[in-house]
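Hello again,

I reread your note about wanting to compare the complex against the isolated chains. To keep things tidy I'm splitting this into two emails, and this first one only covers the full assembly. Below are the input lines as submitted, including protein chains and any nucleic acid or small-molecule components. They are followed by the predicted structure of everything together. The single-chain runs will come separately.
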Amino acid sequence: AQSVTQPDIHITVSEGASLELRCNYSYGATPYLFWYVQSPGQGLQLLLKYFSGDTLVQGIKGFEAEFKRSQSSFNLRKPSVHWSDAAEYFCAVGEPGGSQGNLIFGKGTKLSVKP
Amino acid sequence: DTAVSQTPKYLVTQMGNDKSIKCEQNLGHDTMYWYKQDSKKFLKIMFSYNNKELIINETVPNRFSPKSPDKAHLNLHINSLELGDSAVYFCASSQGGGSADTQYFGPGTRLTVL
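Full-complex prediction:
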């Protein structure tokens, strides 16, 4: 069965430090891959997505993610974290070419930012 | 203007009651969804509607029923509420119903069943 694993429940980084949030997936083929962010009390917002092609994907707010087929991973990175990046981050997968928008989400990683 | 809106934002009710959560999107999208986020932040899809047709229905109790009066609205009705229904419910929409279509989420409705 398809699944998404985010190994880190909670990460704390200092403002200005670099960030990497991990995401691993279990899927028969290469799925569509997504990263969403949920700020406190808000809905989810799409940061970036990967379907095919260049394995390094740029997103909004200075985030990027790299797809590594050999590791079944799609880790999210940011070179310099801002205090406003404190939020919950969700990795999700979708069926490639699927006609149904049935996204499977990981359990999320909470990011705290120290001043 | 809010793209995807939900009402109410908070809902506190007793076990056994029937309640509804409303969702509206002004993006002109064809597909709308309902997700449930439990206390551990685990997010799982419940339903989606495309052109008034239900196209996904996960293993959700039949106490939950989506109602779509038109393409811009997908309301969630819950009968005989149980303690385990306490969660945050998110509505979302996308232009198409495929997995490649970006989903836009509402702010969520926190349901507490006492």
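For quick reference: Chain A touches chain B at residues 32, 36, 41-46, 49, 51, 88, 90, 94-103, 105, 107-108, 110 (CB under 8 Å).

B.
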